C-alpha cells in the first residue's frame, strides 16, 4: 500500500508511520471488510456533538468505499479493486487514530503550540528564533503504548471498549458540550476551543488532593477549593506583552513583608534614569546591592551607568508600600513568578486587570493565606494579621498591638504550607464559577484564536492550518 500524506494531527502521524513501516492490513482480509468498520462509523457519526464535521474523519469516503466493496462495484479506472481496498484500509485506520488520540489527549498539543508562539526580544535577528515559554502544565501525551492499544483493539474486535469513556468526565466539559448545542458563530468556536482544553489531561496527579488553587487568567479570578470551602477573589495578571505563564505547581511557602528584587527591565526603563535622585529612592525605599559581593552601595555613589550594567540589583524594602504587598505565596516554577499582595489596591476595581510583568496579584491575600494554612489556632492567624498590618481579632493580639510603640513589629517572616497545595494557572475563556455557573470571558491573550486556527480543519474540512 503506497498511501502517504502530510500529517495534520498526532493520530494521523501514527497511522502514517504504521503503514510506512510495512504494517499489515487491520480491517480487510480474504473475507472482505471486518465488522469493526461499522462500529467505527457509528462512533464517527457522533463527532458533530463535539463540534466537528464528519468529513474531517473521512466518514463519506469510508461509507462510499464500503459500499463499493460490499456491492463489488469496481472498474478499471478510478475504482480499481486494489486501490479501493487500500484507500479504505488507510482511511479507517487514520480516522480511528485521529479520533482516539484527539479525544483522549487533545487534537492540539499545547506544550508545542504555546511554547512556539512569542519570540524572545533578543532573538528577533537570529536565524533560529528562540521563544518565550508560556505553557508548563504537566499533561499527558500520546505515545507508542497508545498506538499499540488502538491496533490491538482493532485486531481484537474491541473498538467499543476502546472508545468507552474516552471523553473527559469533568463537570466543565459536560456543561460545555450542552452549551455547544445552543451556540452559533463565534460563540460556537469559543465553546469548541474550551472543550479542547478539557482534553488536555493533567499527568501530575495534583488534582487528587483535598485542596487546590486555580487561577484563570481570562476571568481575572482566583478560585480555591477544599475541605468544604470555595472562595474566589479578583486577580491582576501579566499584560499581553508580558504574559503570565500557564503552569501547574504546588504552593509550599508564604513570606511576610518580602523585599522586592526589581527586574532588570524595570531598572533600565524606570529606575536607572533617576539614579541620582535620592528623594525618589528614599520615597520608594529602594536600595542598591552589588550582585557579586552582596554588599549594599551608598546611595551617593549610585550612577545611571552602574544600574544599566546589570552588575547591581535594586531592592525595595519589605513592609507597607512594597510593590509585592505584605505577603507573597511561593511555588516552584521556571518563570520566577508567584502570587502576591500589592500596595496598588486600585487595580482590583478595574474590569481588565492585565497589569503585571507576569506575576499574579491577589485581592484578598489574608483570606488565601488562611485557606492555605487550614486548621491553625487564632493566635497563629493573629500573628499573621499583625505582621501584615491587619487589626488582630484575639484579646492577646490586641494587647500585643497596644503594648507596641507605633507599628507592631513583625511576628511572622515565613510560613510553610504543609502539605503543599496544588496550584494551576490556566486559561479558559469559558469556565464555571464557584456556584457552577458557566461564564464567558474575553480572550485577552488571543489564545482561542491560536487553538481554533489549529483545530479548524476538523470544524471546516479542507481548511489548511
Descriptive report:
The chain is of the alpha+beta class. Helices cover 35% and strands 18% of the residues. The chain is built from 16 helices and 18 strands. The chain has helices at residues 10-20, 36-44, 59-70, 81-105, 110-114, 144-155, 159-163, 171-180, 185-198, 264-271, 278-284, 304-309, 365-373, 378-387, 395-403, 447-459, and strands at residues 28-29, 32-33, 135-136, 212-216, 221-226, 229-238, 246-256, 260-261, 286-290, 296-297, 312-316, 327-330, 339-340, 354-356, 360-362, 414-426, 430-432, 438-440. The strands form four sheets. The protein has an eight-stranded mixed β-barrel with strand order 4-5-6-15-13-12-7-16. A four-stranded antiparallel sheet has the order 8-11-9-10. Helix 1 packs across helix 4, helix 8 runs antiparallel to helix 9 and helix 9 (185-198) crosses helix 16 (447-459).
Range of strand content:
15-25%
The low-confidence parts are 1-5
Overall SS class: alpha+beta
Mean pLDDT: 91
Strand order of the largest sheet: 4-5-6-15-13-12-7-16
Distance between the termini: 27 Å
Continuous helix count: 16
Over the alpha carbons, how many angstroms does the gyration radius reach? 28 Å
* Total number of beta strands: 18
Amino acid at each position: 500500500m503506497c498511501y502517504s500524506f502530510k500529517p495534520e494531527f498526532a493520530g494521523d502521524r501514527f497511522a502514517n508511520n504504521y503503514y510506512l513501516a510495512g504494517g499489515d492490513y487491520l480491517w480487510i482480509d480474504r473475507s472482505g471488510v471486518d465488522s469493526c468498520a461499522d462500529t467505527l462509523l457509528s462512533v464517527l457519526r457522533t463527532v458533530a456533538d463535539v463540534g466537528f464535521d464528519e468529513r474531517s474523519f473521512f466518514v463519506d469516503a469510508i461509507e462510499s468505499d464500503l459500499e463499493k466493496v460490499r456491492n463489488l462495484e469496481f472498474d478499471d479506472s478510478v475504482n480499481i479493486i486494489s486501490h479501493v481496498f487500500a484507500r479504505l484500509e488507510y482511511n479507517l485506520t487514520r480516522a480511528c487514530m485521529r479520533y482516539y488520540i484527539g479525544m483522549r489527549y487533545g487534537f492540539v498539543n499545547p506544550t508545542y503550540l504555546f511554547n512556539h508562539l512569542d519570540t524572545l526580544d533578543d532573538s528577533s535577528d537570529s536565524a533560529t528564533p528562540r521563544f518565550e515559554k508560556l505553557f508548563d502544565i504537566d499533561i499527558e501525551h500520546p505515545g507508542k503504548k497508545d498506538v499499540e492499544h488502538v491496533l490491538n483493539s482493532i485486531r481484537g474486535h474491541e473498538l467499543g471498549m476502546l472508545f468507552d469513556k474516552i471523553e473527559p468526565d469533568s463537570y466543565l466539559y459536560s456543561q460545555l458540550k450542552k452549551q455547544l448545542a445552543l451556540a452559533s458563530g463565534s460563540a460556537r468556536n469559543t465553546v469548541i476551543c474550551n472543550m479542547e482544553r478539557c482534553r488536555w489531561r493533567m499527568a501530575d496527579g495534583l488534582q487528587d488532593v483535598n485542596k487546590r488553587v486555580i487561577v484563570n487568567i481570562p476571568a481575572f479570578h482566583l478560585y480555591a477549593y477544599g475541605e468544604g470551602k470555595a472562595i474566589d477573589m479578583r486577580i491582576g495578571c501579566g499584560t499581553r506583552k508580558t504574559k503570565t505563564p500557564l503552569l501547574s505547581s504546588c504552593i509550599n511557602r508564604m513570606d511576610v513583608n518580602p523585599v522586592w528584587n526589581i527586574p532588570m527591565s524595570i531598572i533600565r526603563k524606570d529606575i536607572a534614569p533617576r539614579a541620582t535622585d535620592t528623594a525618589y529612592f528614599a520615597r520608594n525605599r529602594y536600595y542598591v546591592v552589588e550582585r557579586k559581593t552582596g554588599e549594599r552601595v551608598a546611595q551617593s555613589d549610585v550612577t545611571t551607568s552602574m544600574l544599566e550594567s546589570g552588575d547591581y540589583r535594586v531592592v525595595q524594602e519589605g513592609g507597607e508600600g512594597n510593590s509585592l504587598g505584605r505577603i507573597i505565596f511561593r511555588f516552584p516554577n521556571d518563570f520566577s513568578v508567584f502570587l502576591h499582595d500589592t500596595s496598588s489596591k486600585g487595580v482590583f476595581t478595574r474590569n481588565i486587570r492585565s497589569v503585571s510583568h507576569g506575576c499574579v496579584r491577589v485581592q484578598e491575600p489574608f483570606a488565601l493565606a488562611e485557606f492555605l494554612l487550614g486548621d491553625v489556632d487564632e493566635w497563629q492567624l493573629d500573628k499573621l494579621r499583625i505582621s501584615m498590618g491587619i487589626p488582630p481579632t484575639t484579646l492577646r493580639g490586641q494587647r500585643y498591638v497596644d503594648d507596641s510603640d507605633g507599628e507592631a513589629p513583625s511576628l511572622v517572616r515565613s510560613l510553610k504550607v504543609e502539605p503543599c497545595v496544588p496550584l494551576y494557572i490556566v486559561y479558559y475563556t469559558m469556565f464555571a464559577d464557584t456556584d457552577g455557573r458557566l461564564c464567558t470571558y474575553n480572550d485577552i491573550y488571543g489564545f482561542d484564536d491560536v487553538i481554533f486556527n489549529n483545530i479548524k480543519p476538523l470544524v471546516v474540512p479542507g481548511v489548511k492550518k
